[in-house]
Each structure stands twice: as C-alpha cells, then as structure tokens.
Amino acid sequence: MRYGHFDDEAREYVITTPHTPYPWINYLGSEQFFSLLSHQAGGYSFYRDAKMRRLTRYRYNNIPADAGGRYLYVNDGGDVWTPSWLPVKADLDHFEARHGLGYSTITGERGGVRVETAFFVPVGETAEVQKVTVTNTSDADKTLSLFSFVEFCLWNAQDDQTNYQRNLSIGEVEIEQDSPHGSAIYHRTEYRERRDHYAVFAVNTKADGFDTDRDSFVGAYNSLGEATVPLKGESTNSVASGWYPIGSHQVNVSLAPGESRELVYVLGYVENPDEEKWADDAHQVVNKERAHALLSRFATAEQADAALAELQEYWTSLLSTYSVTSTDEKLDRMVNIWNQYQCMVTFNMSRSASFFETGIGRGMGFRDSNQDLLGFVHLIPERARERIIDIASTQFADGSAYHQYQPLTKRGNNDIGSGFNDDPLWLIAGTAAYIKETGDFSILDEPVPFDNEPGSEVPLFEHLTRSFEFTVTHRGPHGLPLIGRADWNDCLNLNCFSTTPGESFQTTENQEGGVAESTFIAAQFVLYGEQYAELAARRGLSDVAERARGLVAEMRDALLTDGWDGSWFLRAYDYYGKPIGTDAHDEGKIWIEPQGFAVMAGVGVGEGPQDTDAPAIKALDSVNEMLATDHGMVLQYPAYTTYQVHMGEVSTYPPGYKENGGIFCHNNPWVIIAETVVGRGARAFDYYKRITPAYREDISDVHRLEPYVYAQMIAGKEAVRHGEAKNSWLTGTAAWNFVTVSQYLLGVRPEYDGLVVDPQIGPEVPSFTVTRVARGATYEIVVTNSGAEGARGRLVVDGTPVEGNTVQYAPAGSTVRVEVTV
C-alpha cells in the first residue's frame, strides 16, 4: 500500500494523505540552522546543537503522535481547521505534503479555502522561512482569521523537560507589533544573564493580535487541537511571564473569489556580541538590529520565492557530482536524489536529532561521523576536511577516543561512555576517503590537538598512527583485537556483566582482566591498516609502511585461523576466551558483521565466485542461507531468547529486533560490497533492493516509515512484525549504501591516482551511464553490462583501450568519456 508517490522531476516525495503509518519527516537546513518537519507540520528547530540551542519544543512519544510543531489555524466564519490536518484534525477536502531537498510544502483545503505553506531554511541563514499562500477557491467572498503558533523551548532541551521548578519562572518575551517589517515576537529567556542569543518569530504584516503565553492561547486542560484562541477567533494579546512562552500572530484576511494573499513567517536565531546585547542603557530592551536585518531579507513573498529558488539551485549543483541514468527508475532516484540527500542529513546530524533520537542524549559520534564522511565527501569536501579535524581533535593521546562529542563545543562527551575499541580505526577510514576524493595530502600535516588540549598539537598523520597503534597494542591471546566496551555493535558488551535494572551498558564500569576479542575489529584493521600503510608509503615512510603491512598480514592470518569457524567467521571471543558466533551454539550461531567486513578487506577471497573452497565464498553462502530474508539480512541467527549476562545488551531485545536478530541495515551494505568483491553482482543487487526504501514503497503499510530514506532497523524473521522498520533517517546505512551502490554496484570509486571503474550489478541493469565529477574533471562512463557472474569490465578511455580498471585523473575542466563492456 502506498500513501503517496515520487515526483522525480521535482525531486520530491508527494504524500497524499495525512494518515501515514508514522509521521514522515524532512530536514530543513544544511549549515547551522536546522528544522525537523513532519508531513503534518510537526517537529522542532535548533541552531547547531539540538540539545544546547533548541528553539522550539517537541514532545516525543506523545499521544496523539507528532504533537507539537509550527501550526497555522484557520477560522473561516467559525469553522476552525488546520491545513496540516494536525492538530485540529478537521476533515480536509484536499491534502498534499511535498518533501523536497531542504524544503517542504504542505497544502490543505477545506470549505473553499486553500492554504499552501512552503517551509525552508534559506542558504546562509539561521532561520526557518514559512511562505503561506491563502486562496479563496469558492465563488463567495471570504473573511478569515489566521493564527500562527510555535512553542518556544527554553534553549537547553534536557533542562527544559526536567527542571520545571526553575523553568516555569524564567520565560520572557518582547513584542513588536510595529516592527520595521510587520510584527515580531522575541523569545529572550535567560538573555538577561548568560546568553547572547534570542529567537524571533515574525510575520511580514501588521498583525491584528498576538499571544505569547501558551495557557492563554490553548486554554486550561485543552489540547492544541481545541485551542481557545483559534476557536474564539480572537487573540488575547497575552504577554508570557514565566510559564510557557509561545509565538502567535493573528492575521485577518478578506478574499474575493479566486483571490490569494501571501504571507511570510520567519522563525530565526540571532546572536549579539556582549557589548551589543542591549538597545538601552538600562539593559531592558534587546538589541534587535540583527533581527531586523534578517527579517528585511524576507519582507516580501518575492524575496522568499527567490531564496527558495536559490536553495533548489544549490541542491542541483551538489547532486551534479554523481548521477546515473539507467532503465531502473528506482535505482536512479535513490542514487541521484534521496540517498545523497540523506547522506547530507546524516553528516549534519550524526545520530542526534530525529523522530527517534531526541537530540538530547547524543552528540556527534566519533565512529558515526567518520562513516558518514564516506557518503558525503564528494558533495562538499571542504566541510568534510573540517569535520575530520574536529573529530581528530577529540582523540586521546593513546589513540583511543571519546565515543561522541558535542557539535556546539566540538569537545568530547563521556556521558554515553567510551572504550569502544573500533573507534580509532574509523579516523583512518574517513581521512583516506577524503584524500582519495580530493588529492589533498596536506591534511596529514595539519596540526591537531589531543582532547582539544592547547599545546598538544601534532600532525594529523600522527593521530592516524596512534589509531593504528592502539589496535596493535590492544590484542588478545588469539592475536585478535580486544573489544573493549564494544566494537561497532554497541550492544555486544563482553566485559560488562550487568545485572542491575536500568543500568547503562554504555557507561557501567567494565570488569578488568578479560580477554574478549573482536573479529570485526580484526577485519577493520586489515582494511584500514592497509590504508594507513599506503598513506605512510606516499609520505615516503617506507619502513612504517612495511611494518604496517606486516602487522596487517598477521591479522589476516589470525582471522583465517582463530577467527574462522569452518563455514563462516566467528564473531568474537568472550571474557573467558570462549567463541561467540559458532555453529556449536544453539543461538547466535552466525553474525553478519565479520562475514561482510572480512571479505570487503579481501580476507579469504580466493579465485572468484566458482572457488567454493574459499573462506569468503563459504562465509557469504552461509549468510545467504541463514541470515537473508525478503526484507534484508538479519544481524545474527538464531536470535537470543534469554538474557546472556556475559554478552550484554544485545540479548536484552526481543528476538528479531535491533541487535538481536533484527535487520540492522547499516551492516547489510558490507555484505553487498563483499558480494561484488567476489564477482557476484546479481546477488549483490538483489540484497540492495531488499532494504532500499524506493523498492519497498509498495509495502509502506508494512514498512511504516518513509519510503524515500533508509531506516536503521527492519524487524527480523523472528520478530512479531517482520518487515516493519524503525529509526529512519539517522543511520550509517545512508553513507554505506551510497558507497555500495555508487562505488561497487555501479562501480565508480575514487582512488589515490584515478577513478576505479568496476561495475558489478548483475544482468537486471543491462546498460547505464554514470556521470562523475572528480577533482574538477567530468567523467561520462557508459556501461554495457552482461551481468555475468565473475565478469569484469573492459575499459576504453577517450577511444583508447586501457589495461586494468583505473582511469587516470584528468586536468580540472576536462571531460573524459569512458566506455565499459562487462
């Protein structure tokens, strides 16, 4: 069942009913100001940090769902409704929500009145703009009253939801009915003390009334759907003092048949230097010069339209870096539009702010952000460079890392724990991807501190060395890396032994003396240890490179001996040195992570797809037999049915969910890439389609979440509701699946000296063209594809056949034509 459709030409997903199985959202903003917006106008806004600079309040897990957002109430002669359906829930004659790239439009029509609102964050601005068009579609005159609504958060989102004894006394606002560009409400809570910032909510016309006190607007014991002011049709002109500050403007509109009226609302964030905070000597009136300048840039509908057009052109330019044209429209729309768009969002948000992540508990992940770089670096490499420096600056001198850091301060945060031993190696992965994309080896000489401590700066390459050496010096009795608190799987806690209800597996003190080892980190070390060695060699450090490659070879051998179970790779050794992920166990026999990552790293690959004795082929065939389902590959099988205290959080989930036998989409791409490594493109593409949202659109009633972006998790085959997704948008699946489809299925990936062109997608896509911009040159890559198992492409570059699969980088500004026959 579908609830809308793709509009590929407009690069939008069109939702045609408010009654989707779950709120389907979009992200506005890609620089410093961000908004989450559902198809029912729910969500919230923040500046840079969803915890520390939250502008508007949102209540998670509320009843009804998606309660709280930016709403526009219409009072049409006593008939009160909201064009977003929520919160009033009055039946609409027409509803449509269009989620585009950085913008959304929501249109509702009832009783001869149509209201269309375009929501977006303009390029270069710290504000959300809402351009409203009200049209009288009836054959009679209409006199309407419109009531806008936002509820301000008191900045620190965690404190806002907990410290009521203080917060219900500190709310402050200022009102400007005659601002230079209409009417404006200023949220200035705590501005009198330590804050240098405030929020403004304005409309570009003289309002006929206002409210800034929530209780006055909503009424005692009412929900937002039965708010008193819209029902009565008249604002109270309330002034918030303590309690709950809001922003609401009443605008009366008279329309002849067919007539329209356009309004522009702006929700903005403004900072003032300390010496310019006040407009008066008594320090009572906020300095509004910067706010007025902001509002002047959106004082007319024409200015708003121009800003939206600029935003759309911005995305057109970004998406021109990589595109495909094929006979598979779902493949094209995911590669050309939605997957790259989601990569931008995950780069900006990490795992911090979605409709499943509150923006309070997590900041930017050390591991997460490095992986997100892999799918983002081709879009805006200079921002990727900055992110690498930010991440590395939080690393400890011994090579280990904070698991997360706060985006506002860029400093490490231990609230979610540390000691995840896979973290350090991801810094090598992100840095190598950046250099391959840009050729900018100078980043390796950039001075970068440890733990942001001034005076501790060393070249970035030294940080990579510490990352590499941390794994070398933290190995267990089988020569495999020690797992620490956990590896990529945060819930595989082999040193925790928690028996206390409510205790965090991520922060509880680990027991000392264990020898728990990770085959996943071993495979990661083989892959990224080789990348480190290559970077060392290119810096002229031949001795360093030779030693590193020797250690990588040792780890490869360890994986194939003590890391091998006969038909697949073990997952780990536990605290007592006993294997996990072995056929000898009734539950958790096989785990997905090392099967994909080890083969990605080239471990046990053998002579190709027909080499059935090769460990890689055996492991991948075991995955297909035991882990693959119609909805993707489960993380392990069989799932655990009882709590395994020596394994930690992984066994606390019901069978089939999350890390306990769920389809954790993040790791499916590793197996897909692995299948291309051994030359089985048909199986790889089949796996790809099982988790990719555009191919799941027809089962939206089962999948439930957005059919245009990846989810973190899909319920596994042992779950009650197999195929149901959870945790959409913020997942490493976005970056990894873009790497998978663009670099391995379609087969065009940057290396240090050129583009590797090696398609492996099977016979379902017999021909396609990839356009790839790399280091300023444009490559038009035309592929004729048999899809035969094990077949590799033959390349003709600008009319000349070439040996191998690498196309040398051309000068910036040039165009290179590559013909590939597979």
Descriptive account of the structure:
There is one protein chain. The protein is an alpha+beta fold. Among the domains are: 31-317, Distorted Sandwich (Beta-galactosidase, Chain A, domain 5), CATH 2.70.98; 478-523 and 548-691, Glycosyltransferase, CATH 1.50.10; 748-821, Maltose phosphorylase, domain 3 (Sandwich), CATH 2.60.420.10. It is built from 19 helices and 43 strands. The strands form 11 sheets. The chain has a 10-stranded antiparallel sheet, covered by helices on one side. Strands 6, 7, 8, 13, 17 and 18 form a 6-stranded antiparallel sheet that branches. A 6-stranded mixed sheet has the order 20-38-39-43-40-41. Strand 7 and strand 8 form a beta hairpin. Helix 8 (366-376) packs parallel to helix 19, helix 11 runs antiparallel to helix 12 and helix 16 packs antiparallel against helix 17 (681-691). The longest helix is centred in the middle third of the chain and has 21 residues, at 329-349. The mean pLDDT is 96.
